[in-house]
Fold each of these.
Amino acid sequence: METLRTLPQPVPDDVVTSIGLEEGVGAFPSTAPYRISTQAWKGALALLLAGGTLTACGRLGAGARYRGPFGRYEAAHLLRRAAARGNAAEADNLASMGLEHAVDALLDSPEIPEEHDPDYFEGEGSPDYRNAWVNQWLQTRTPAAERLTLFWHGHFVTEAGKTGWWNTYHKINKLRELSLSSFRDLLYMIAEDPAMLIYLDNNDSTKEHPNENWARELMELFTLGEGHYTEKDIQEVARAFTGWSVSWEDDHHYFAFYAEDHDFGPKTVLGRSVHNTHNPLFEGYEVLDILLENPQTYLFISEKLLKFYFHPDPDPRMVQVGADVLKGGTVRDFLKWLFMHPEFYADEARNALVKSPMEYAVGMLYAAGKREAPEGLSWWLRARLDQDPYNPPDVSGWPSGADWLPDALLLQRLKFIDFATRTTDGEPPPTGPVDYSVFMDGAANPLSLVAPEAQLL
Amino acid sequence: MNRRNFIKRSLFTVAATGLVPSLFSRTALAAGGNGKILVLYHLFGGNDAVNTLIPYAQSEYASFRPDIAIPSANVITLDSSLGLHPALQPMMDNLWNNGQLALISQVGYPNHNRSHFVSTAIWNTGDPDRPNKTGWLGPYIDEQNDPFCATNFGSTLPRALRGVHTAGLSIESISGFGLGGSNWEGQLQTELLRQIQQGRHGTAEEVRKAMEHMLRSVERVREMGNVNVTPDLFPNTSYGRRFADIARMIKGDFPSQVYYASSGGFDTHSDQGGATGNQANLLGQLAAALSAFRQEMITQGRWNDVVVMVFSEFGRRVQQNASGGTDHGKGGVMFVTGGAVQGGVYGGVPALAEDQLDDGDLPVKVDFRSVYAAGAQFIGANPAELVGAEHTPLDLF
């Protein structure tokens, strides 16, 4: 059982290139290592075939590629969007690599932190779960994986308040590990995740009383989006997942299937028959496969990713091409396509997104030279900036755009400047030139942090 | 141009130049409406109507809910067919017994949506067909053209208070609303005033406008911090603090005619409890805070000028589930109270027999927009404009 809750260590690069992906490491598929030399041409061919009927050769197509200058200015935009954290030296380093190598470097396999047992976080003076994530984001060599993990955590939402802290911590760790993998890997993992099974009450769903919470959110929020299924589909999906639950052993929850709670009758989901009396557990996987074959799933995820990484109102043609890239490949393929896209570097895309409080806090602390969460940060995030990273407001995740900027929150964001930029001995920051160039456009000194651009990505 | 329009216009002229407007008169703005106040309180998650307004006399009640039905002996009986949850005793004593509590039974809208978010959006837009981006109060707020005409307590402004051009104010609480006084924060404020004078475009311009809005709000709200309400009256709960702040702003003549607040915890898929437990705790806190609010309004001489509407995005399934909870349903229950409200049950006694239910849920007998229409009329707004002429105001006053 130990392997079920222990995250595999990152595979050293030399092992990856010599033996390729090792199957069956840990409780879920590992992230496929990214190897340009052997994979890229296949991916490019797949994308060309997938997008060929659309606009592969057009300005918005799968093959569209930014060919303009790539200096500090462009690299700062890329780094801000990808990682929400950085400084001028890092932007210069990316610029010197050239666009494609810079994107590959940012999308390197996530650095995986050591996973601690619950007792590490419990008791007086123990580390705080929220600060642990902020510290990871401040210290990792793969900060883009942290922003992407925040995206997935805001998509496949669980709240620590309901699941227990460690379960959501473990889920976030698994999301980080799979963050750049295929959407299929992510969905399969989350369906079996104890935090999710508890959060959406599937652990209490029985053939006598199917609980529809997971079934509804699986389709409304995780795959298809509202309006692409019927109430009847929800009831049928709930029946297919009856018996998917958790067990409790060695102070941890594990995924468990209880056949005695499963509804063995035939189901129809989105017009497709789901019935497996031989192995009833697989009815759940069959439902996931139906959702994963549905093009609407990729349109929904593509639009959401583009709103998080590109523009609050992405062009439907971008959404369509992004959906094709995602369906035929991985999240890494999707982000690489986007980060090399000419539209990504257009003026309209720059500073078009509002930072969430986590991104705002991490970005400002990093730019201010902090590499560890200051005392009180956890409270600031939860109580004042209104983004407790372990407790999203509800199952639909966090708001975006100007919804982050009602008066009360905007005021707290401005008050946070004082907290984040003070020197460790409590003095106000020096007023001379500082390096906030990746945190925001147009920073001249710490006072510039009140400018609107500081709120933007 | 009348005086009120002139003041509004000068406010926006001032704002456009980036200065903090402090010269417009509060009383002039407050005098714009009819002096009546509408308080909207959202119980987020879907409050279980069947255990709130209880059809205790029907045999199905106990048989559908073996673990969570409230024993008849504990139900506060209203008549031979309906009763209230025992945690609502303060509402019974202070509101119902004074004939000032209207209970809107089986309330909702056609073709009910069981998603929290879609259903909340529908309640906030008043548009079940396709949730608008603007709120049902949006036209009113646009017409007032004043961000202070509606105030939300919370971090995120609900869609109900969003108009096309103007949005309501959103604050966590009166205390602690403002930039601090240190020398360094003073420098930041000076730089902020300089920065927001420069117009931007796109999202940056949205942020700049949000900063202007915030600065205006800070000044107005901070004045309310000096207003005192009856000491030790309000319970020290989130409900109590919210209602105390609303009472403070009413006493301080804050120019809002609409207040909005919400509290969560009602999504009781598991461990809902019966006479005691999770739902009972929440209802008890609400009842105590509402009773204190009534008392304070009477002290201020304003109880007849106020109407409070408590709603939830849907009710819950009549049959309990295996987790000692209930799943999302349709028909819900609203509380409406105020000195001018005619107490009683509106919308009839829910029938729990299987063939009377709508796919296992309470059916919808009262459209929530007819309740909103009554609230709109109360504050002098045009109900037809806000919720459509087909929704005639429920006769609550």
Note: The radius of gyration of chain B is 22 Å.
Amino acid sequence: MHPILRSGNLGLYLLAWSPIVYALALLLTGSARLSWPASLAMAVPLCVIYAFVCLSAWYPSRALPLGSGRLARVLVAHVMSASVAAAIWVLTAVAVFAVLRRSEAIRAAVPGIYGLGIVVYLLAVAVNYVLLAIDASRQAEAHAVEARLLAGRSELRALKAQINPHFLFNSLHSISALTSIDAAKAREMCVLLSGFLRGTLGLGDKALIPLHEELAMARSYLAIERVRLGSRLQVEEDIESHCEDWPVPPLILQPLVENAIVHGIANLIEPGLIRISAKPITGGGLSIVIENSLDADAPPSKRPGGFGLAMARKRLSAHYDGAANLFTAARNDTYRAEIRLPENGAANL
Amino acid sequence: MKALIVDDEELARKFLRELLDGHPEIEIIAECANGFEAVKAAAQSKPDLLFLDIQMPKLDGFEVLELIGLGPAVIFVTAYDTYAMRAFDVHAVDYLLKPFSKERFEEALRAVRDRKGDRAPAPAELAATARGSAHLDRIVVKDGSRVHIIPVSKLDYAQAQDDYVQLASGGKNYLKQQTIARLEAALDPGRFVRIHRSYIVNLERVVKLEPYTKDSRIAVLADGTQLPVSRSGYQRLLGLLGGGAEE
């Protein structure tokens, strides 16, 4: 249905026709030599009828969008329908005058009415295109708002998914065991765990945090896992000092560090090593590498992959518009994950 | 009652030991930090009760159970609730979810006492069936006190030997107490074919099929091994190879 009929603006639309009523009346007094009251009495109903005829311009306008690139075809189509509409209008006028037995009076006005009809119809087409454009931009805006909402929601879901519930259960079990074995250590573990959880909650609403904050989160996670795994977990760090303030998405390292534990160290009988390093890339950008020992005999089902990495990739591509990368590779008994961030990563946000 | 504690986390082992302190009737014969130690300890000292973690390095809890091959009462102790169904399929007495309370632990011990005297079915067979629909990705074999892990991708073929199967992998043979029908059921039918009453072959190893008698053929493997192919085995092979690809 036409938006003018739909939105209940019909009165306003008809009011907008008053200049056309005036133009038609002027034409009738001039060519048909009618008195002012008589030509107005004729012009008003004729314009009301034509106003509805012009509403039909909505359908060809919608079917032939301006952006389609075939301007000539669109123009020809509209001029043709304009001539048909104007012809209908002229015939209506002739019929009305014939009923009133004034046929000879209208004859001189026919070319004028026909011309006015075409101009008014094309005007209606133009108005329709404006309405369509407003409609489209409103829809685009609604889409953008929806996309932003969705992005925010998936971000939140991603952050929640970073914290594996089994990590919590295992940590709580360690605390439960420590209460009688080593109460001081149990308290320390509670503090570590709370610190880590508080960090993950607080970071959720930030788009980027400095690398040293992100590393602090990874360290507290590893400290908790060390209570559980004991000497089986060895950690080494090699962070170039001027990388410490580089902005990174919060918790982007978490799935990598967790994979290093769950799919790496936890599958080893002998002590295993997790090595975290960060250095600038020659030519711009930052490279963060997490390497861990791996049980080379573990079946593929115990190898990392899956949800955490996919989420990290999604977040990187959302934050950096495809300019950041996450590479993973397993070689013999070492698994390596590398995040490469672009130089002007912060500029996109 | 002799008990074995199997958990890769030291704290978890200490916790169980502490809880068992109040039970002089239960003697802890060993604490094991991984599946290999558990299989060895169980072979040496036949425990009556097993506290078994599931996610461990090298061998998981179900594989340990499969290898132990006798009927101790089993209490699984894990942070994962996802294995509960499988645990009861292998007739575990109880399934303790970490963290658990002392009361919950006592309840599990009561369940063990109530079950005493019942003859539990052999865990090896049960563990093999409890796998459900997922195909095996490795086979565990006990050889004295040693444990071999054979990834199925390295299994060349298997041959029936009464109640055992002989597994050929990279020129070596391993003997496992399992029927060939059970092994066949656990393997991926898209990769392994029962070509004969007594043989299962890894499809990737087959290089050619040669006629032998009117009704039978011989499959030649990449390393030159020749295996008999029965008529129905040949039909199965053809079905898998998309019909008429060979010969």
Note: Residues 163-348 of chain A form a domain with the Heat Shock Protein 90 fold (CATH 3.30.565.10).
Amino acid sequence: MSTPLTAAAKTPTAPAAGSGKGTPRLRTPRKKHTPGRPKRSVLLTVLTGLMLLYTVVPLIWLVISATKTQEGLADSSGLWFADDFALFSNISDTFTYNDGIFTRWLLNTLLYVVLGAGGATFLAILGGYALAKFDFPGKRGVFATVIGAVAVPGTALAVPTFLMFSKMGLTDTPWAVILPSLVSPFGLYLMWVFATEAIPAELLEAARVDGASEARTFFQVALPLLAPGIVTVLLFTTVATWNNYFLPLIMLKDPDWYPLTLGLSAWNSQAETIGGDVIFNLVITGSLLTIVPLIAAFLLLQKYWQSGLAAGSVKE
Amino acid sequence: MTTLEPAVAADRPPGPRPPAKRNRRSWTGWGFIGPFVAVFALVFLAPIAYSIYLSLFRDQLIGGTQFVGLDNYTQALEDDRFWDSLIRVSLFLVVQVPIMLGIALLIALALDSGRLYGKDFFRITIFLPYAVPAVVATLMWGFMYGTRYGLVGDINDAFGVTLPDPLSADLVLASIGNIVTWEFVGYNMLIFYSALRVIPHSLYEAAEIDGAGQFRVITAIKLPAIRGALVIATIFSIIGSFQLFNEPNILRQLARNAITTDYTPNFYTYSLSFNGQQQNYSAAVAIIMGLITMVIAYIVQLRGMRKGA
């Protein structure tokens, strides 16, 4: 169980991806003509550019295809626009098709994200703070079990969780999706590393000497210092919840509780059923609408999550 | 675990602490970690225990559910469908993971070398697919793979060629590998890049004084310095490969003949539970897969940490 524990503990840098602006300046300032400031290379830029192309071509395809009608999709080339520009009618069709079920899926996804990812982040903050700043009986056991659990294939748990939840009458309710989302071992680990670095013990001692309760010390002293780490964990748990497919697939039968991922998959497979409405244009437009909020969040919050990750990764 | 020590010890103020106070604090810690542990026990530990329990029983036509000991496990070990799926993901693992991590490492090194124009743009853009759900990624690539309407069809028309069908039985595993690579190459790149960024600059200066070239700097300084990140990324990728489910499950809507319901071990346990109603057997297969994953992750970690240490 405790397999990757040592690996994880030895390299707090590792899962803490990202760096950049907020990183303490370990490698700057640089003098000219040192290996730290080499000449820029056109060849290397072009080669990396190929990789960039591979990354963006599917996304460009998605954006272009979202402007096409069902007929346009079949008739036109994938990487250029069809004659008619149907993006806006596609968007309004996506939201109105089947009595606006897409809106319902969007709201479900938001519900799962707010309660699931929000709850997971809150539990990770509390837990990470406890691991970083308190000594308590069983601490090592807790840490080893949780980090070891990362190695357990999540999907190996899904079926037993389903059977257990169905005995408890939780399947086909939002709780079946929210409860398992509440645990993020990676988030806990990140908050533990982050809280260790970001909260000076003297500050906590000072607050306690002043007679502040533990709860007040946490909320007024510790929490503000943890802000960049919180944004980071929140973003990553949001991605995990927003993109979740396997768990809701198992837990939910009623389309009224589907998240976007499950709904899109259902629309896509609808073309196969006999007499089923072929709505690939709505599948594609719906896909685009599904990824836009997350991509926007990553781009807009760049500074915060990158500094959060970077701070977690500088541990010399 | 030994490395946990400094972190734990560091936040303790120097000097002895009154025992009464330590006692009070110790239970305060549980006040903060308690909620996490409670939910963790409910959605992690309880299902594991329950699935071990389930795997020891079998639903029989005569006599109902009976305790059968390890029969489900011996059955799984002789089950060709299980082995075929395991061999398939193993093949996937040894081909896709090195390609994906290799590309991620090369890009990370290129970004870190400081020789790129527009470095920040490259970094954030190549990372973006991480924010795309597996469902959407698979749907997109699935459409593009189409030989009639997709990009493959466009290329066929434009150049008058007939490319092999990416969704045929022979190629579909490679096509899935491409989707997974697309989704996670940027994520792994960011892991490697952030590890490279924290290498102290003084090491490069020392290397320059010694007259080391770029290649030597990479092999002698950079790669050893990020070994931990490489091991972690490898372990996560192994876990991901063994758990493969979303991509084949969704791509099956387009390639029903090429992707069977026992295509991957995970797909197999899913089908056993939800189409075959063989929950007890399914639990045994899932536990075996969990054990295999942990053993391999453990071996990788031991080897990775020992090498050159």
Note: Confidence is low (pLDDT under 50) at residues 1-35 of chain A.
